[in-house]
Amino acid sequence: MGAVQLSGKVVVVTGASRGIGAATARALAGRGATVVGTGRDAAALSAVMCEIGGTAILGDVRDAGHADDVVRQTVGAHGRIDAAVVNAGVGYTGPFTEMPAERIDELLEVNVRAPMRLARAVLPELARHGEGALVFVTSIAGVLLVPRESVYSATKATVEAFAELLREETRGSGVHVGTVAPGAVATDFFATRGTPYDRSFPQPIAPEPVAAAVLRVIEDSVERAYVPGWLRGPTLLRRLLPRGYRALSRRYG
Ligand SMILES: NC(=O)c1ccc[n+]([C@@H]2O[C@H](COP(=O)([O-])OP(=O)(O)OC[C@H]3O[C@@H](n4cnc5c(N)ncnc54)[C@H](OP(=O)(O)O)[C@@H]3O)[C@@H](O)[C@H]2O)c1
């Protein structure tokens, strides 16, 4: 139910100027979808959209009217929206009490408020055709809850909870809501958050497998995809043996 065959369909991808969003935009175009990509970096976004024949919408997801603008412009240009990939996001790592207040606001606005606003703007348009998909790119941090990433983990956990409840609300409407929770991915994410990725394990993966998981969520109505797939193991351990999981996490990071 709700599965979308992508050829000829119109898909909005937020944060399509680089990283996971750009890889997802390319993968969607490879399936024959028309992509509308968003971002602030005009040069990077137009390079990706030119490459795949997509449409660029420039803007900051923190702006109050942005989500409505994206939906209005996309429907104006292409007549419809069949799926949306809510991917734009920012991270932060470090002790919570040293986290600047403006970074807390940024994470809440970009990672939580903007996805909710876009969902609110796009869901009626998806439901109009009786078939559609809404995919949130969350993070394994939102499921495992990573130390020193308290605000980031909380934002992604919020979106996981939000998506689960939206899936219930949209049940029967033909619109599928799913999430993709990646582990470490080799993108500009770590440079943008201001702290390099410093774990020896697991090594960051390429963004393409994450993009492939986004397509599976849309095409096969997957509810939550972990990338890489073995990350499901620690999530089960945490759910079944929370104290044991936390002890292991303290010991091995
Ligand atoms: N990389 C990882 O290890 C990892 C792991 C788990 C989850 N994730 C999640 O995956 C998603 C994509 O991250 P990524 O790794 O691809 O990072 P990235 O390479 O830094 O890309 C982030 C994207 O988000 C957009 N963005 C950020 N702030 C924005 C704003 N205020 N307004 C509009 N667009 C904004 C950026 O566009 P502009 O710069 O053009 O505005 C960019 O396209 C995020 O939600 C992140 O939390 C990443």
Give average pLDDT, whole number. 96
Count of discrete domains: 1
| CATH domain topology | Rossmann fold
Indicate the structural class.
alpha/beta
Q: What's the multimeric state?
A: single chain
Strand content: 5-15%
Order of helices and strands: EHEHEHEHEHHEHHEHH
Task: Name the overall outline.
Answer: globular
N-end to C-end Cα span? 39 Å
So, CATH architecture? 3-Layer(aba) Sandwich
Q: How many strand segments?
A: 7
Give structural notes.
The structure is a single chain. The chain is an alpha/beta fold and 253 residues long. It has one domain: NAD(P)-binding Rossmann-like Domain (Rossmann fold, 3-Layer(aba) Sandwich). It has ten helices and seven strands. It has a seven-stranded parallel beta sheet with strand order 3-2-1-4-5-6-7, with helices on both faces. Helix 1 links the parallel strand 1 (10-13) and strand 2 (34-39). Helix 3 packs parallel to helix 4 (101-128), helix 4 (101-128) runs parallel beside helix 6 and helix 9 (232-240) packs across helix 10 (242-252). The protein is globular, with a radius of gyration of 17 Å. The N and C termini lie far apart (39 Å). The model has no long low-confidence stretch (mean pLDDT 96). It binds NADP nicotinamide-adenine-dinucleotide phosphate. NADP nicotinamide-adenine-dinucleotide phosphate is lined by residues 15, 17-21, 39-41, 44-45, 60-62, 87-91, 110, 137, 139, 182, 184-185, 187-189, 192. NADP nicotinamide-adenine-dinucleotide phosphate binds next to helix 1, helix 2 and helix 7.
